[in-house]
Design brief:
The protein is an alpha+beta fold. 23% of the residues lie in helices and 13% in strands. It folds into two domains: 161 residues, Glucose Permease (Domain IIA), CATH 2.70.70.10; 162 residues, no CATH class. Bound molecules: zinc ion.
Length: 373
């Protein structure tokens, strides 16, 4: 690239031409099998080292890796790409491929084609009423890494066998249908580590386990709707998000329907704020406003947690030097005395940093500490 630019510049100098300065080509994300997202959700799956196994009396070899999992287990795109080879007819359901660019493809077979009866039991079905491909996915649909694409089943030639995802990784220098199968087993083992738990952007966080706990408790749903496969652990938690966390943690439903705050109408967290204010937990950032988009401060966090989780004693402690006179000092001391929070200046820990903000990941750990998850 650099060499060609130099040559072009040279020629243009020789010819006395000005070369137009074109914008650098958009960075094309390259598929890297080492960076794949694991394609099967939940924790009930089992990967089998089955690539190259004999099939049909060794007339052909197994070109994929089978991941055994219960029927209905979510299946995710392993990387960004474009849907291809998507089942189009009921008698052809259910499989799809993803074109990841640069000759890389993945394929997902035996997706569910059975229907669930009123008791929640799957009925074996070949009439295509069950459709194990996520809604809206057709040939050409752009897909994101980690996006839900379907559900594990036993369609195709896996009918009546153990339900599983047959996953293929393929590569070609030419046509899609010439792509050669590659053993995906080692990459899948690696992919398991690439995505621990519910969200794939928190695996390097010390709070990862607690984030999964608050997800399991219904306190968070994620930060990138509708996919919600990310938690945004490093983002500051806002006052609005905190309202939603508390409302969900406590299962609050009661709302007043009218708010005295002028900055909430139509806001994503209007109802959550209403719930925690109605419950006597939430409070504004001034007399007229709630400031739902403002990062939550540590002193506000202490007050909200103390109110939400009924920390009321002891009332006669003074733990920190830098919160004296703070309007939430009492709650800060109570939370510290109960071991929920510590100071902000190790190793002394005698300051609280009341006006500092917190990350969403830190907040997950606080919810675990107060026993909400
Ligand atoms: Zn298979």
């Amino acid at each position: 690239m650099r060499r060609s630019i130099i040559l072009a510049t040279l020629f243009s100098l020789i010819l006395g031409l000005a070369i137009p300065v074109s914008a650098a080509p958009a960075e094309q994300p390259q598929f890297d099998p080492d960076e794949m997202v694991f394609p099967v959700g939940g924790d009930e799956y089992r990967i089998t080292d089955s690539f190259g196994d004999c099939r049909d009396g060794c007339a052909r070899s197994h070109e994929g890796v089978d991941i055994m999992a219960p029927k209905g287990t979510p299946v995710y795109a392993v990387a960004d790409g474009t849907a291809t080879w998507v089942s189009a007819a009921p008698d052809d359901c259910c499989r799809l491929g993803i074109d990841h660019g640069n000759g890389w493809y993945t394929r997902y077979l035996h997706l569910n084609d059975d229907v669930v009866d009123k008791n929640g039991v799957y009925k074996e079905n070949t009439d295509g009423r069950g459709w194990g491909i996520a809604e809206g996915i057709v040939d050409g649909t752009e897909l994101k890494a980690g996006q839900l694409i379907g559900w594990v089943g036993d369609s195709g030639n896996a009918a009546e066998t153990v339900t599983h995802l047959h996953f293929e990784l393929r590569r070609t220098e030419g046509d899609e249908w010439d792509a050669v199968a590659i053993d995906a087993y080692p990459y899948l083992l690696r992919a398991e580590g690439n995505w621990i738990g519910q969200f794939f952007d928190d695996d390097d966080s010390v709070h990862q386990a607690n984030i999964d706990k608050i997800f399991a408790a219904g306190i968070t749903v994620g930060c990138n709707p509708p996919l919600n496969n990310e938690f945004c652990p490093r983002d500051s938690i806002t006052r609005g998000q905190m309202a939603a966390f508390i409302a969900r943690a406590l299962g609050l439903t009661e709302m007043s329907g009218e708010t005295r705050f002028d900055d909430l109408s139509g806001h994503q967290f209007e109802q959550a704020v209403d719930k925690i204010v109605t419950a006597g937990i939430g409070f504004g950032c001034d007399a007229d406003s709630y400031c739902p988009n403002r990062p939550l401060q540590r002193d506000e966090m202490a007050e909200l947690l103390a109110r939400a989780f009924d920390y009321t004693s002891p009332s006669d402690v003074d733990v920190f030097a830098d919160d004296n006179g703070n309007q939430f000092e009492r709650s800060i001391n109570i939370l510290a005395a109960n071991g929920i929070t510590v100071g902000c200046n190790p190793p002394a820990f005698d300051n609280y940093c009341p006006s500092e903000t917190l990350t969403r990941a830190q907040m997950a750990t606080f919810f675990v500490r107060v026993g909400a998850a």
